[in-house]
Amino acid sequence: MATRSNPIQDQVAIVGVGSAPYSRDSHRSLLDLGLEAAVNAIRDSNVDRNQIDGICGAGLGLGMMVTHGAGVLSLQGALGIPSLSWTMNGWLGSHLVYAANAVYSGACDYCLIVQAEHRISAWSKAANQDPFRLRDSRFGVHSTVPNVHYSEGWIHGAESYAAFANRYMHDYGAPREAFGMFAVNNRQWASQNPAAVKRTPFTMDEYLNARMIREPLGLLDMDLPVDGAEALVITSKERAKDLRPDPVFLHAMSLGQAPVAEFYENANWGHQAPWKAFQHMWARSEVRVEDVDLWYPYDGYTPISLAMTEAAGFAPHGEGWRMVQDSWNPDEQKLALLGRTRVHTGGGSLSHGRVGGTNYYTEAVHQLRGKAGEGRQVKGAKTALFGIGSFFHDPTAMLFRVD
Amino acid sequence: MGATNPMGGTSFSDQEVFDAFPDVHLTYDNIEHFRGLLQHRLVFNRCAECGFWIYPLRPMCPQCWSRQVHATEVSGDGVLYYQTTLYEGRHIPGFEYPHLTGGVELTEQKGLRYLAPIVGVTGEEVVEDTPVQLVWLDTTAGPVAGFTPRAGE
Q1: A95, A192, A248, B122: least buried by Cβ within 10 Å?
Q2: pLDDT tens digits for A149-198?
Q3: Among A151, A159, A166, whose Cβ lies nearest the Cβ of B86?
Q4: Among A150, A212, A213, whose Cβ lies nearest the Cβ of B115?
Q5: Number of domains in chain A
Q6: Nearest Cα to B134, choosing from B120, B123, B86?
Q7: ipTM rounded to 2 decimals
Q8: Looking at the domain assignment, is residue A129 inside a domain?
Q9: Which residue range(s) make up the domain with A46?
């Protein structure tokens, strides 16, 4: 039961989604990928481009000043959009929250959101052999992190997630399989998603035997760096009705934050930002977690998926690993949380590809429209829940709903 | 570099600290910590009014909002709150793979954690909550505060 008012509830809708193809090596610029996704999303929305008056572009590294990427300064001119009343850049799931509030407040009426990603040199040894990727890394197109002292070394790295996974296993007795079930589940769904980069299913044994990178996280616990892009068009509920018969409504959202150390070491499991995000989001909704059809927990590293799953309320903290094991369908090699909720129907960042979680939003829109395609469409899906982001900063709790 | 000061040990000017840590974002709020590393003293900002240890290094006490914040040395004792053995990844100046790293919760305050290399032991030999003590490591990237299982425990 909602405990506080939520004026924005179901007042903003997604009317357009678009993607650019995912690949390990596209030979295309971030802007090129972002433009393809943007054009597809605008066409899908039936909005005339001259009506677009808000853009949230991709990138945080240099804020508004991102150039030679898919930031708003590059996108607007490249798309030939004459006039904007609201602009911003963002990343992960939070850009949709910024944009939704801009539409609800009247700062803009039709807002385009673009997320484009490259397999950057910081994430891929092979990318360090590519002059285009190396040159990009010098210009803040991505939110690159400079060299730091050892004591600050966990910023934007996998190390902290690995250490938290060890602490979780130590405190609660969880086995690695609890993380692995997310990895196996996501790949199984990706095998039914033609847009996914990795589509060959693997077994739990193959997961456990994959190359160890950071104990206890192996190669299959970490997301897949790719070149790709996604875009969304949102508008008000009233305008949406004139554009499409099947708008997807933003029901409740929160950018929860806990008081974290900058270097990622102080908050304890169960008290980090994801738990704050969902506490605030559920306070704004009458929907219950038991009613959720589709669940998209961030899977940059598998322990984040488990943390998000606990934070969303599928299980108390420390007990998610048992719930996940109880929710495993060995015949399907997929999860059905609490006996029903489907997880990462598109394959997630682990197998579809890492585009910062914006692909979760577009996949869910396809599902809620009933158009996800043979094999992976979840029949009758009406609600989609998201936990997109980090243990540590701006995780987005978001709930989509259709009538 | 450095000059002997009358209190014992060696003092370092701001410029010497900047020169010693060219890749660290030094500010007025954190420079005493890094000056301490050069002196092999592990110091954190501490509130002189309520005694709260402040890390990350801030100019104001987050508990009582006092501005009476002074860099203060810790004992160097703690427990290994969490750890991971790294087999590959981004370059860690001064260290090689495989590498055991962890967050040490210092004895002075619950939640006062410092990221450090864990030495003298492998990841298979150590578990969470093991008591550890400070050990200074002089690396090619300058002095780093490391930790090792506490003697006799």
Answers
A1: B122
A2: 888 888 778 899 999 999 999 999 999 999 999 999 999 999 999 999 99
A3: A159
A4: A150
A5: 1
A6: B120
A7: 0.88
A8: no
A9: 12-121+226-240
